[in-house]
Amino acid sequence: MAVNRYDDTRAWYAISTYSGYEDKVAESIKQRVGGIEMKGKIFDALVPKEKQIEIKNGKRKVVDRKIFQGYVLVEMKLSDETWYIVRNTPGVTGFIGTGTQPTPVSEKEIAKIKKRMGVEDPKFSVNYALNEVVSITDGPFKGFDGTISEIDSEKGKLKVMVSMFGRETPVELDALQVKKI
Q1: Residue whose C-alpha is closest to residue 118's, from 70, 73, 76, 64
Q2: What is the pTM of this model?
Q3: Coil vs helix vs strand at 55
Q4: Phi/psi class of residue 40: alpha, beta or left (left: φ > 0; alpha: ψ in -120 to 50)?
Q5: Rounded distance, CA 37 to CA 101, Å?
Q6: For residues 137 and 143, is the Cβ–Cβ distance under 8 A?
Q7: Sign of the Cα pseudo-torsion (112, 113, 115, 116, in order)
Q8: How far is 119 from 142, CA to CA, in rounded Å?
Q9: pLDDT tens digits, one per residue of 12-48
Q10: Within 10 Å of residue 9's Cβ, how many Cβ atoms?
């Protein structure tokens, strides 16, 4: 008779995956649960993502970025059977834990991750100061240096004074279009 060395309570576990395979692994686990008698044993597989703002070709767009590259969270009751199913999912490299025993992720940590995922509007981080000299990295003024004259933290915008043809010209830029010198 096998001794169940696992805890039969429902908890979240972190599994490591090959980088770039997180979504495939989560989808695979969900499909395997539906195809076999795992309902009530494995409940969910989640790739923690958050919304971020990216600038490409001068255009701002919101993208989903993985919070933890190479990791998937799985909600399940840990047993030899569920461990085997998850561990043998293509792309999974192992469970996160102490020694050979998977360690549940704390409820507090899961709550933090879910809160971070649930934020719909991406936050702007404007880490610049007035009169700071910056280099423009994107847009029609790429390659120019300028001095910050205004900061709009709400919108993530900066007004930068750029020296062109011997005079200062104000240019409104996204905070992601400049970098500190």
Answers
A1: 64
A2: 0.63
A3: strand
A4: left
A5: 23
A6: no
A7: positive
A8: 32
A9: 999 999 999 999 999 999 888 876 677 788 899 999 9
A10: 8
